[in-house]
Structures are given as structure tokens and as C-alpha cells.
Automatic annotation (TrEMBL):
Any one Pfam family match given in the protein's UniProt record, by short name: GGDEF
Catalyzed reaction equations: 2 GTP = 3',3'-c-di-GMP + 2 diphosphate
Protein name, per record: diguanylate cyclase
EC number: 2.7.7.65
């Protein structure tokens, strides 16, 4: 960052002298173009945050309408991606440390910092928050395929399930098992097995909408959570997956054909939750796989 880059700073401080001193320090910084907005109430701050973006919040925990750790928690809940630096007095460092443990990026003691220390605290807070958000995002992703991992899928699919219950669509879970992975890994090597998994992930991206939740649950198991208009649409999605798998097989020369067993399950009032629905789709998928291995003559 440099002077050409401006940073929006929200100062939440009820002491006019302290707020003005911070504003002057930031204005005089030769490094960055800080653009400050001040408020002296948490309620006002929450209204401001709902209407505008800020790169960092400087937050006093002792405000007329909120005090202590609760102040930080409310601010963080309103804008979880924005880094917060806590402003504290000499007698409040214990609370400030508690705020850091809860997710604040730093704290500074009022009256004990200069312009350089203030700017450094803000700069470090922004960079640390970027790292936290990146790690948080990566914790939901499957490293090999880039799809959601099981953890990411369960969280995001549960949110989609809640949305579906407020509407008229049919919440549906697809469970997809890539066939023959043991044969591929044992005979062709794990690098070829990884390629098969990546190909399947690509097929899923092309078969489902951006609003759908797709994932590699682990090993050769994939899943998708979608909201269909009608239950009869489930077969259309199944056909689309099959067509894209066939197209891939026709376009590439390899010693095996990519194939997958697919099952799905619809949500209804008798289903207790996402885990049960996933198990139901898994059972349907397994029945299909068994049927394909032992076709009735």
C-alpha cells in the first residue's frame, strides 16, 4: 500500500479528544491516504457499516450505548470480514485481550501510541485479516479439485436447505460415486486417479448451476445440493451429468472410461436434516451401482 491507495477508517470513540487525535495522526501519515469517519455510539456505527465499506475499524469498547466484549462481538457480527483494532484504556487491557481472542486483529492502549505505531497496527490488522479470510476459505475447499470439501458442503448446503424451506422449490441432494477408482489407482497410478477426480469435478461444475453447492466429500465421493422446481427435474440433471461424462470419454483417449453411479434424495417433512438426506442419496447411489454390476437378464 502507498499514498496512492486510500483506506477508509471508521473511528468509534466517544471521547472527542481521543477521536480527533487519531484522525490527525492518520491524516499526517506520509505512507497512506486515510479517509476517516467518526462516530461516538455503537448503534450509529452499525448503521454506518450497513451502508458503506470500511477497510478497518478502530473500536473503543467502552461506549455510552455498549460496554466491554459485547461491543466487539456486535461490531464483528455486523461486518465479519472487516478487521477491527480495539482502542483501550490502561485499565481495560484484559477486556481488549479477550476481544483479540474472539477475533479482533489487534489492540492499542490510548495515550501510549504515536502515529507510526497506529499506522503499523492498522496495516498489520488489514494484512492479518486477509490471511485469516484466505485460510478460512481454504478450509472449506478440496485442495485437489477446488470444489467444496465435506465441511464446506455441510455448512453451505445447510444454508441452502433453510432457503428452500422458505420457498416453493424441492431441495435435492445428489450423491455421486466415481466408478473404478481402485482399479485406476492400483493399475495406472495415483496421478491418473487424481486426473479422473479432477475431470469429474470439472464435469460437475459444467452440469450444475452457480447457485448449486458442489463438493468432493472425500476419496471418490462427490455431492451436490440443489433446489429443483419439480421432483421430475432430478432425472434431467442426472442425464446432463451422463452426457458430459460420455462427451469427455469420446474426446479423450485413455485406457479406461470415466463413469459414475448417481443417486439423489428429496427433502420432505419427515427428513430430520442434511446428514439424513445425504445418507438417503448414498443408499440410492449404492443400489444403482449394485444394479449396474449385476444386471437382471
Amino acid at each position: 500500500m502507498d499514498k496512492e491507495t486510500h483506506l477508509n477508517v471508521l473511528i468509534v470513540e466517544d471521547n472527542p479528544g481521543d477521536a480527533r487525535l487519531i484522525e490527525i495522526m492518520l491524516h499526517d501519515s506520509p505512507q497512506f491516504d486515510f479517509r476517516c469517519k467518526k462516530t461516538d455510539r455503537l448503534s450509529y456505527a452499525l448503521e454506518i457499516l450497513a451502508a458503506a465499506h470500511f477497510d478497518v475499524i478502530l473500536l473503543d469498547l467502552a461506549l455510552p450505548d455498549s460496554f466491554g466484549l459485547e461491543t466487539f462481538i456486535k461490531a464483528r457480527e455486523s461486518t465479519p470480514k472487516t478487521p477491527i483494532v480495539v482502542l483501550t484504556g490502561n485499565d481495560d487491557e484484559t477486556i481488549a485481550l479477550s476481544a483479540v481472542r474472539e477475533g479482533a486483529q489487534d489492540y492499542i492502549v490510548k495515550g501510549q501510541f504515536d502515529e507510526k505505531q497506529l499506522v503499523r497496527a492498522i496495516n498489520y490488522a488489514i494484512e492479518r485479516q486477509k490471511t485469516v479470510l484466505h485460510l478460512h476459505k481454504m478450509s472449506f475447499k478440496d485442495e485437489l479439485t477446488g470444489l467444496n470439501n465435506r465441511r464446506g458442503f455441510m455448512i453451505k448446503a445447510d444454508e441452502l436447505l433453510k432457503i428452500s424451506r422458505r420457498g416453493t422449490g424441492v431441495f435435492t441432494i445428489y450423491f455421486i460415486d466415481l466408478d473404478g477408482m481402485k482399479h485406476i489407482n492400483d493399475n495406472l497410478g495415483h496421478s491418473e486417479g487424481d486426473k479422473a477426480l479432477i475431470d469429474m469435478a470439472d464435469i460437475m461444475r459444467k452440469s450444475f448451476r452457480e447457485s448449486d453447492i458442489t463438493a468432493r466429500l472425500g476419496g471418490d465421493e462427490f455431492a451436490a445440493a440443489v433446489i429443483l422446481e419439480e421432483q421430475t427435474d432430478a432425472g434431467t440433471v442426472r442425464s446432463r451429468l451422463g452426457e458430459k461424462i460420455s462427451r469427455l470419454n469420446d474426446s479423450e483417449i485413455r485406457s479406461y472410461k470415466l463413469s459414475a453411479s448417481i443417486g439423489w434424495a428429496f427433502c420432505n417433512d419427515k427428513v430430520s436434516g442434511l446428514e439424513e438426506l445425504l445418507n438417503m442419496a448414498d443408499e440410492v447411489m449404492y443400489a444403482e451401482k449394485k444394479k449396474r454390476k449385476n444386471p437382471v437378464s
